[in-house]
Specification:
It comes from Pontibacillus marinus BH030004 = DSM 16465. InterPro entries: RmlC-like_jellyroll, RmlC_Cupin_sf. This is Cupin. By secondary structure, this protein is mostly beta strands. The chain has one domain: Sandwich (Jelly Rolls). The protein is built from no helices and nine strands. Strands 1, 2, 3, 4, 5, 6, 7, 8 and 9 form a nine-stranded antiparallel β-sheet that branches. A hairpin with a 5-residue loop joins strand 2 and strand 3. The protein is globular, with a radius of gyration of 14 Å.
Length: 124
């Protein structure tokens, strides 16, 4: 057995797109999937950018907000995931802080295994 760290102490700061968060890489497969743990601090954000490939943004702890191509902001919290397709412009952030598992790959199909929910937009 081996053990690995992915907490904030080993995370790398990300400032691209005016972002203020840190990322702990977890996994990169030969098939091109990337899995990482985002540590978004209080008042932190992932600046608007286009998804390089399909992206599942699963909130593990805390709460925050996300928006996609339509620019409508939705609240998101622990136990909820947002999904953006390749090329979709999006951003996210948190006033209180949140920890997010991010899975990126050209072959993601969350609808095959996850229950889809409807969220109500919010003003931020």
């Amino acid at each position: 057995m081996k053990f690995f760290r992915f907490d904030e102490k080993v995370a790398k700061p990300i400032t691209q797109y005016e972002s203020t968060f840190s990322m702990s890489p977890l996994l990169l497969t030969e098939e091109g999937a990337h899995v990482g743990c985002m540590h978004i601090p209080q008042g932190g954000m992932v600046g608007e950018h286009q998804a390089a490939c399909d992206q599942l943004f699963a909130v593990m702890e805390g709460e925050g907000w996300v928006y996609g191509e339509d620019g409508v902001t939705y609240p998101i919290q622990k136990g909820t995931a947002a999904f953006w397709v390749t090329g979709e412009s999006h951003a996210s952030g948190s006033e209180k802080g949140m920890t997010v598992m991010v899975i990126e790959s050209g072959t993601l199909k969350p609808e095959d295994r996850m229950q889809e929910v409807t969220l109500q937009p919010q003003d931020i």
